[in-house]
Each structure stands twice: as C-alpha cells, then as structure tokens.
Design goal:
The complex is a heterodimer of chains A (267) and B (284). Chain A is mainly alpha-helical and 267 residues long. Chain A contains ten helices and two strands. Chain A has a two-stranded antiparallel ribbon. In chain A, helix 2 runs parallel beside helix 10 and helix 5 runs antiparallel to helix 6. With 284 residues, chain B is of the alpha/beta class. The longest helix of chain B is centred in the middle third of the chain and has 18 residues. The chains are: A mainly alpha (267), B alpha/beta (284).
Amino acid sequence: MLKDITLGQFFPGNTVVHRLDPRTKILLVIIYIAALFVAKSWISYACVLVFLIFAITISKIKLKVMLKGMKPLIFIIVLTAALNLFYGSGEPLVEFWIFKITRDGITRAIFMSARIIMLVMGTFMLTYTTSPIMLTYGLELLLGPLKKLKVPVHELAMVMSMALRLIPTLIEETDKIMSAQKARGAQFDTGNLIEKAKAMLPILVPLFISSFRRADELATAMEARCYHGGEGRTRLNVLKFAVRDYGALSVGVAVLAGVAVLAGFGL
Amino acid sequence: MDETAIKIENLTFFYNTDDEETAPEDVLAGVSLTIEKGSFVAVLGHNGSGKSTLARHLNALLLPKGGSVCVFGMDTKDEELTLEIRRRVGMVFQNPDNQIVSNVVEEDVAFAPENLGVPSEEIRKRVDEALKMVGMYEFRDHAPHLLSGGQKQRVAIAGVLAMRPKCVVFDEPTAMLDPKGRRDVMDIIDKLRREYGSTVILITHHMDEAARADRVVVMSDGKVVMDGPPRQVFTHVEELDELGLAVPGTVRLMWELRKNGMDVPLAALNAQECAEAVAEYFGK
C-alpha cells in the first residue's frame, strides 16, 4: 500500500526533459497551470493535452507510473465530477428526484476532472524528472531576488530538499513499524473508519519519535560535513540555460498564448 | 613540523540536565590523549563509556566543559576555527541512512565540498575520486535509499573523503552492517591509511576491528583505563572481561590454553598467528 506513494519521487533518466534546467521546468509548470485555467473550450483543452502528452512521451516516464500516482486522487476527481454534473444550468436531459443532469453539467464535469487530472500529471512531470536537489536549487535561484526582502530563501529550499530526501526513508520505516505491530496482532485492514483510524495511532507515535531522532542525527552529520547555511556555497552542477531551455520555454509560452487567444474569441 | 594530530588535555564533559536538583553526571571525567599524525587508533568501550562523546569533541560538534581539545594546532573552543577543524577531521557515523542528504549518490558526496565553497570543476574531480576510492563510482547516479546498508555507508564515507580530511573519525561505522558490509568498510579504512596516510580514529566495540589498529585506547566511565598497542592491551584478558569487553577469539583461545598449562604466547591477533604459536608449541 505504501509502495504506491510516488509523491515527490524522482525517476532518473537522460532524456531532454531530464536535462532541462530545473528553472525552465518550474516556469513551464507555472505556464502550463496558467494555460489550464485559461482554457475554456474543447479545442484549448486539446492544445494543453497535446503539450502534456508530448512532454510525457519524450520524458519516457511510463504511463503506468503516472496512473499509479493518480490513485489517491480518484476520490477527489470523482467527487468534483459528480458535483459539477448535478449543478449545471439549462435544459435538463435526465431528471430524477432532486437531481437533474444537463448538457452544461456534463461538459463542466468533464472539463473539471480533466483539469484536475492534467494539473496533477503536469506537476508529476516536474518531480518525476527533476532530482530534489536540482529542484530546490532551481527554486532557490528563481526566488533569489526575494533574499533582498530578507526572505530566508536558502533555508526554505534546504528544508524542502530534506523533506523530499526523507520521504522514501520514512515510508520504509512506516512499513517496518506496521509489520512489527502486525506481528503483535494489530489489525489495520478490518473494522470501520474510526477503528482503522485508531489502529493508525500506534504507528504514528513511534514514527513521530523516530523522525525527530533521525532529524537530529542528520543535522549533526550535516554539521560534521561543514554545513553552515547558504553563504559561500558552491555547486557540483552549475545551472546554465541552454538552447533547449529557450526552445522549451518558447513552446510553453506559445501554448499559453494560443489558449489565451482562443479564450479571447470565446472558445 | 609538529607530529601531533590531536591533543586532548584533561577533558571533562557532561550533558546539561533540565533537572536542577541532580548534579549532571560526568560523561567524560578527565581524558588526556595525544594522537600522532598518520596513526590508527581504536577506541574501545562498552555502551555509555563515553567513547562517542569523546569522538564528537574531535571535530567541535561538542565543546569541552573543562580541559581542552587541540586539533592540528587549533583549539576547538575558538568558534572562528570550527569550519577549518571540521574540514580536517571528517566524521562517519553509525547509521548511513541518517547521514545521507541527497537522493542522488554523487550529489550527496558533493555536499561537503559545496559547503566549503570549492569551485565546481574541482568538486567534480573530488567526487569522482572519492567514489572510486570506496568502489561506488558506477553507482554515482543511483538513489541511495535503493542501495544496501554497506553500500550506503561507503557513500557516506566518500562524502567525508570529498572534503580531503587529514583525519577521519569513524563512530561505530559497522554497527548496523552485515559481515560483507563490515569487511568493505574495514578494507576502506586500511586503504585510507595506505594510500592517503590519513590519521584514523575508529570508535568500536568489535575487538577484531580494533586488533587492526596501531594503538588501542580502552575507555570506561568517561576515563581512559588502558592505552597501548593491541598486542599489549589484549593480554589483559581478565580486566577486559570485567569491563564487559570480549577479547578477540584467538586471544581467548590462547588464554584458555595457558590456563590449562600450555606455554603459548598470549597475544595472537589473528588465526594465522594463533596457528603458528600452537604449531611451535608442539615442536613443528
């Protein structure tokens, strides 16, 4: 069950998408999200979808992995679709009891669920193809100007990269604790929702304690390796915009502009 | 040229307690120790003997409450020198999972030189060299959490070596590893001394690991109770037993043989020495 969590995971590779500058990828995701929210018609959604499919294809990320990552979101998607389905305006196509389904409702339900799915897949593309260190380095550089406003940019970036680093370790640890509790007769898959939630408590307490211990040890190890904040730090891989970055950004901007123009025409 | 790497004088330390009623207990109660450049010193002691606390004083992770610690001529109490001390004295910890900072092996190894502000090309050189040294070069773009415990510990060692330290302190580096992982780590320590001439301080409670050192320091209750070459220290079988430390199996065998009236030398640090001594006794 925990093996399904692909949040924040990174799949190393050597494709163009992997090699893009993390700053480019972050900006592209922002552009992509903007385009998704501007899109109002079938044709503009199709444009954004083509862009997404193109990116997934050249990154060689398996569709199976993508869909697996979507699993925990099924409930939200279904709920959103259902709500939109029943709250459309106009002439009802089907009517029963207090529910009525209209043509407008169906369209809205499809658009909304497509938007969520594409939104999540797009952001997955970012984390799947960018190592956490590169991701935070990119963020740190992009947010760099905020340092002048005394925003602790480096510290925030470091916190984020540590969090991403610890996800697989903590998942492993949770599995271990669960096995230990199961060996002593704990049952996690039976009972109603409240019973299940109660059964989680004996997992959370030891997990919490060990995370603190881990954090403490990791901090000591970082100090022993001369970590002293962002000042005077250099990098193994220095980020430089290459031709492919300008290319990718142009494509992204073109898609956003296209969608915006279509929206202007009411499409 | 001064040949002293580390000079500890009358070091005392205690952890502060929140409870004001009880006086804090001394974890280190007056330790004096001089470690020469290029030597391999093993520090032995049971749990709670203060050996890890001592280790943490060597790179200014902890500062003395009394006495002084001087590392390559630098007093650890001087905060301005902390970074200079830490780049010279690297430290490898027990749990490899809790010292790896990145999701990619080579980025993790680069962490220390990055902190030191080393230029990028130089970092690349150091990372490649350190990874080759520990035999993990082909894993450079792997995710550390998918490696075995021994491999992770080797990555952690590479991360320390990338600082180019003059002295490396290993704080029970093999405690969480399987026999293969233990052997790999011990081989790296040998290589480190042979090829780099580094000073190595190994905190351990494995006697057979300590037997490889030039010098063994035994600690108990925050004090140094024995100090000398392994051959000499391991002859104190009864005292070591009392301290809760088991001597190497070969020494134990010789000791039992002597107790039963065989006149064999006590100090046999490995199976070969042991066999030779027994063979000699039987006149062959």
